[in-house]
């Protein structure tokens, strides 16, 4: 069975998110849906899943055409979707989430849920997606990566003929992404029509049979994958004009920055990680590379005072800092861009302006009154430098696309008004498109180079580590197990470092 | 301010119209069964005089009562009969009504600023009940036994009734143990409080309530604890003259007394007093009698039940 | 080390038991609070745990529990019903009218009450679930409007419902009062619903993440709508029980303030007002806590105003202890 | 085409005005509802818009507004205060006692009331913000406890507070009653706070996402704590104003049910119970809607129970229209 979308249109207020999009995915094909942040990819998928009713156009699944679908019709038609914003229900268990809305019941037990059968089936599905959680775990207790895998298992549990994945690997490590890719390949051979949204071109190259690129709600490019190279893709996504720019931005000078350390941690220990020692010099950008669950988030959050520290010392420019709360860390000059964007970063109902400038409002105020002029100028600067789209300061953050939401959260600390001495970033470009990613790297680089900010960032994407970091610490099982820098800092080196460390690390953290 | 408005028996303003078109009845305790009866009877009574009766909806909130009265004064309702939830708090409104040339009749008490009043002695109602119960206790129990009071201390009328009831009883039957004084004005609370009291004092003899509703809850609690409805050593009494209690009294149960007001008497006063003020009569105020109804008053019970029907 | 090793064979069972007990307490921090309250009352009054008194508490708690269960489910699914006080009055009046004036059987009277309550729930459900209005305002409005309607329809108290109707509130089954038996059935069905029915999972999903529930194909409107119906019907049933117990019902006062009592029990029992969490066992604890408190203070003959002060403070302390349990554990 | 082109030069201004108007209505759907209500009452009674009547409405609405503003900020930041009814009583009693029995000046009396109210707010704030207890249960407990305390301290109504104290409720400034002037000041400061103070943004941020606010370095405890203090103090001030207006105050009845009235006004005004959204202008509309409704129904001499039914229904309809506006626009 195949999927055929034609003339699909959807607008919000005046803005056209989709404007006559056509997309055909035959059975047994992986179709990559690409485009810059805010291009309309998720909107298209939400129309498919019944979250939005399209304004015009038809959706044809297995030969039946629909003008609009309800979530139930969509499921019944054989469409399984993994949405960009995870739709797991935290208090429920893994098995309950997988079978939510399609519970297995037994007539012989008055229609009660057959927990045992569900859990057995869930265990099988979890194995298929290489998840390490158990069917009885509460989803709310799982790390993001595992939750993502639960979503995938949920999609697989429905004998779907069309599978749609909206940035499924955004929260996955390389190894997990690899496992997922194998799964997707299996499903293709089983004859599913698969739509795959991603900003990672390596995944496109590995998986896609055909690509469709959206630009501002219209199809700007559609072709089979064969014969396309990375340059063509970037060109299609970012637009010809910006290609040259982003290409020239990408290589980061691999000069080693040295000088007195601005951030020093000595045998830092917390629940689930440590002891860890590290230092970052002013102007230096240090990457933390590791598998999901290796402890990078915990390390960053402990440095920021979000988690209790059980031992060790942290020094900022030589002064010992005891940060019991984030406010203390901020006062000491440490800022964190958190990893879980929706839960820890975004103020969904507030405007883009408020989201990006929240911590700046008070310091900018004069005589206790907000200075809106200054706020507005800073916002505009920021929005330009990180490529926010649409550039609408009053639009609520919830109306921005996933990547643009990430930019808003990032912009809170990376703006022209006040920069911290130490910037901690957790997966800074998760879900950000190729073009904007280069812009963000550029902003961070400038911050380090021009203002001497010490940057420590965690990433699961070796490409990103290589593109941004001067030096990289390899993390496994809550410990720093290796360090790469200079010419030795390559994707291959990172991958082999992690694979050497992996078994040991996982054994410890389990 | 008008000199005429300083005494409760003063003559009405010269400017007051001789005949009234409208009487406003402001009775805040709209949840009480008596309320509907009063409105029905006084509307009928007013109609006979060609007067229309309008009402407020205060829902037992003094704030709402104050704003509704203010609205009436600004609207110039020619005669207002008001039962203040807090008497002191109504003085100003009453004054503004008089200043606007309106008739103000205070219900259930008296104010400094008023044209006339309709009085009941709530203390007296309590006293009648307490006295009768004490007499019964002395005669039937030989002055010994246990009593529980269901009281109210949140509003003036409740405090008056409570005081009259307890003072009279304890003075006349000092040998009876007062085992509980619990706040209860509705049957539900009356029931659960009495249940708790009975768990500790299974041999409780008397329950007196500040309202018939609360006492009725006590009545049910006693029955549910296994007491026969006609037990001779048990006495329950309340105040108000609520129909189910009157019926219980009539049937010869141990619900033996209620200090009752006759709704018809009150309804008559609600219409007659403002009309009397408007007609310029001297001493228009009325004192509505409260009587204790017991099983012996069969005819009276029937009359009261008929008024409530 | 050796001592520990010697003790080994005995440990697993004992430990498992102890740790299950601990886990129960951790999940239900109100349990030790309630136990402490009961012990304190028993020591100070000496008669708190008498059978007669416990029966009284159970009967009072029964009507609250009957409404608290569906209300808890409603709150878990992210809604709220403040109109139950008036539905209770309406239910009692309809049942009383049918049993008394119309000489109908108990079954007809109860069905009438259930119908009336479900009608109120229907309006609430349509407005809140299908039209998406604010449950707080809608059900507060219904609280006022239904009370007015009840008073308009039945301006005078009803009483004298006959012996058939008296069964509902007065009968004992195997020594247990009928209302308590009904409450037990309601509690059990509520717990079973949450544990075993697919819709039980949906209630949580809707309360936590409506969007996710919707996209999973769950009927995010029908389930809470049904709960509104159930809550209204349960309140009316409670009204019929109260009417039967008192053999009288008054439109003005019956069930006034009941909505707050029930909601307090539900929240004290650990159901989050924001939806998505709670258990029926917790609700039972909340109901019992309030019932014991009220009864114990009366037994102690605490003066009226001190009772009020104590009751208010106990609520705060109950909340504190209930919320501290989980906190302390996490730290 | 030509006609349109000819009209062109005039359009921008007219259009801009019209579209601003439309935007205001869209953001405040209660505005047209309120306007319709006012017109309907004026047509049916003929005297609704009389100066005397409007003054009455304004004075009544003033005490509600004074408390609704800080309460709205508290709700926006994700909390709730149900204890304001009792704080109001306590404030009135303390002020009355100081002005009456102790012959203190108006300023001292008002300061005393503010102190008492802030003390209640302090307890609420400590328990809810610093200890993290459920605001619903804590403030409901405080509602009961403070009422009991007030009745224990002042079992009898107070009155006769003297002319100095009467100024607070009775004076007119430029023809406007003092309580109305105070309410206007409170409303303006509330609106200015949200618009111009940095902490105004923090209130929203805390209400929308506490965790994210915490990670942004915002004092997620201190700001709501301050709002609890303010709400308590405002309730006590309202109590002092009422005591002054009526020259009396009673611990048993003063301010009973006030908490629900204020919360209803706040929610009807578009403040979400779940926090994170709302405006002071909306709150003003909510307060006026309730005030006009109450007054208009009395003017119309609607029979009591029908008034109750109408009031309840109006709440529902108000909510419906207010919530439908935004819905219809989106579709
Ligand atoms: N609910 C909404 N209200 C208003 N505008 C919206 C809404 N949802 C999406 N949009 C707008 O529609 C456009 C398309 O968004 P969409 O989420 O589809 O982008 P995307 O291609 O998925 O981007 P990303 O790669 O960042 O996830 C964006 O400009 C976004 O701001
Ligand atoms: N051994 C552990 N001890 C304590 N918490 C743990 C442990 N393992 C996992 N967690 C929890 O899992 C949560 C999410 O883990 P997540 O994988 O996102 O971050 P991380 O474990 O810090 O690793 P990384 O950022 O490298 O992926 C953490 O917030 C942490 O609370
Ligand atoms: Mg997207
Ligand atoms: Mg992480």
Task: Please name the defining characteristics of this protein.
heterotetramer; B: 309 residues; alpha/beta; 6-stranded mixed sheet; 10 helices; 46% helix; elongated; disordered N terminus; C: 331 residues; mainly alpha; 15 helices; 4 strands; binds adenosine-5'-triphosphate; binds magnesium ion
Description:
The complex is a heterotetramer, with 1 copy of chain A (510 residues), 1 copy of chain B (309 residues) and 2 copies of chain C (331 residues). Chain A has helices at residues 41-49, 71-76, 94-98, 115-128, 144-157, 174-189, 201-207, 230-238, 240-249, 296-303, 326-331, 341-345, 352-364, 372-386, 402-411, 434-451, 462-468, 491-509, and strands spanning 3-12, 15-25, 29-35, 56-61, 64-66, 79-82, 105-106, 112-113, 162-166, 193-197, 210-215, 218-224, 261-270, 273-281, 285-290, 311-316, 319-320, 334-337, 422-426, 454-459, 471-476, 479-485. By secondary structure, chain A is of the alpha/beta class. Chain A is globular, with a radius of gyration of 23 Å. In chain B, 46% of the residues lie in helices and 20% in strands. The longest helix of chain B is centred in the middle third of the chain and has 19 residues, at 122-140. Chain C contains 15 helices and 4 strands. The interface between A and C is medium-sized, with 27 and 20 residues. The structure holds adenosine-5'-triphosphate (2 copies) and magnesium ion (2 copies). The site of one magnesium ion has 5 residues of chain A, from helix 10.
